[in-house]
Write a structure and sequence with these properties.
This protein has nine helices and twelve strands. The chain has 289 residues and is of the alpha+beta class. It has a single domain, classed as Oxidoreductase, molybdopterin-binding domain (Sulfite Oxidase, Chain A, domain 2). The strands form two sheets. Strands 3, 4, 7, 8, 9, 11 and 12 form a seven-stranded mixed β-sheet that branches. It starts with 10 loop residues before the first helix and ends in a 13-residue tail after the last helix. Bound molecules: ligand MTE. Ligand MTE binds next to loops. InterPro entries: MsrP, OxRdtase_Mopterin-bd_dom, OxRdtase_Mopterin-bd_sf.
Length: 289
Amino acid sequence: MKLSWSDVTPEALFLNRRSFIASLGVAAAAPALAAVEKPNSFEQITNYNNFYEFGFSKTDPADNAGQLTTDPWAVEIGGLVDRPGSYSVADLAPANAVEERIYRLRCVEAWSMVIPWLGVPLAGVLEKAGVQPGAKFVAFETLYRPEEMPEQRRRSMDWPYREGLRLDEAMHPLTILATGLYGKPMPNQNGAPIRLVVPWKYGFKSIKSIVKITLTDRQPVTTWQAMQPREYGFYANVNPQVDHPRWSQATERRIGAGLLGGRQETLMFNGYGDQVAQLYAGMDLARDY
Ligand code: MTE
């Protein structure tokens, strides 16, 4: 059975996950990866965003991203791969391979959400492209299209937005390319049509609206690290013990918790330590922040 976007499931039905998954035909292969907390609402997830290409306030992406053309879309995969080329979103994330992953998202600004993504493991995409033995890192780039991305017409940042992962992080089963959320195609403000989600790292690593994936033997230059290296590292693993120079990372504000909700403790690796801590064995995470 194929996943059909015309078969949009209302949010209320989502809470009945089994029938929701059955109705969409989404492969339910990884239920253990779900966060146990209640997901944020579709309203919250799509109206409180960081997508600086559309402006710097939290509501700018919802206000301005509607104009982004996301179809047709091509992702160029290149560098140290056997099969470089231009891939469509359907090539990378065919409907019958799309899985649901409910993950916490912890922004470096100390707010968080729980988001029910749809996507495919990045590992499968890279395996299909054929990773060559010399590859050690994966670099990602967002679309550069100033006609449709108003903040790119200003020199407020060094566009396009760039991110990167070590190859073992990219191949980790928790790392996905997401193409939707809440059973719907990815809203533009969340990074349509295809974005990265790395749930144990600060949200800025989860680059949106990807057009380029490059396998390389060198650690790539990433947007935030290049801009403020003292404040934002290449690794950016969620770590309550390593504070941002200007604020504590010990606690976070869950969006939607309300004024009386209070702050909650931030978990090492955003709570995914059992799955990912071994990637960093022997590393000093205060130095490699
Ligand atoms: N990707 C691009 N291209 N541009 C951005 O400004 N912001 C990052 C990340 N990916 C950003 C981006 C930051 S800081 C966060 S916290 C997450 O996207 C936010 O994802 P969300 O808006 O879907 O919650």
